Amino acid sequence: MRMAQLSTTSGIPVATIKYYLREGLLPAGERQGPNQSLYGPEHLRRLRVIRGLLEVGGLSIAAAHQVIDAIDSDLGLSHTFDIAQRTVSPQIDGTALSPEAVAQVDAVLSGWHVSPDNPGRLAAARVLQTFAELGQPDLSGWVPGYAAAALAVAEADLDEIDARTDRESKTEMVVVGTVLGDALFAALRRAAQEHVSSQRYSGGAS
């Protein structure tokens, strides 16, 4: 298909597609002349991935470029996971975290295979440090529940990846699933909060 048809089918303006081409997010089409190229299903699929990363995942162009490069690489799934996690996670200086907050997180993650600089470990410690600074240091009943839910979600993530049959779709699911999975979990948490609160407080309890 030509650029105009690619735009119509994808719902993405021609100017935006050309921008993705210039930024290297979208591979070039097959040249048919000085100003004409043909695009195939792989371009349409990549456009949908880009849109998901940018519009739903909220990534910057630079971050999207990194995760798309991971999709196109020959790296193993564990390395791809590492790239995806570090790209979409805030950069946190572990030395700026309180030992108490880090110890709290490590106690909850006891028995897990997590590297010291894992972005989730550091982000969780920063959250607990912030709670302590707000005068709410005792989260012993709350954090383990989150950890259990996170472990269940991680199992669901890997089950979904394992259900894919080829490397490209597995890698794509690792990257896109890491980004969009965060958005999905946050969205479902909002719905679950309404459900549980309506059950607990529908009688007027406060």
From TrEMBL:
- The HTH merR-type domain sits at 1-70
Q: Which PROSITE patterns match?
A: HTH_MERR_2
Name the Gene Ontology biological process terms. regulation of DNA-templated transcription
**Gene3D superfamilies attached here?**
1.10.1660.10
Q: Which GO terms describe its molecular function?
A: DNA binding
SMART domains annotated for this entry? HTH_MERR
**UniProt xrefs under InterPro entries:** DNA-bd_dom_put_sf, MerR-type_HTH_dom
Q: Note the Pfam families from the entry.
A: MerR_1
Q: Which domain of life is it from?
A: Bacteria
Q: What is this protein called?
A: MerR family transcriptional regulator
Source species of the chain: Cryobacterium zongtaii
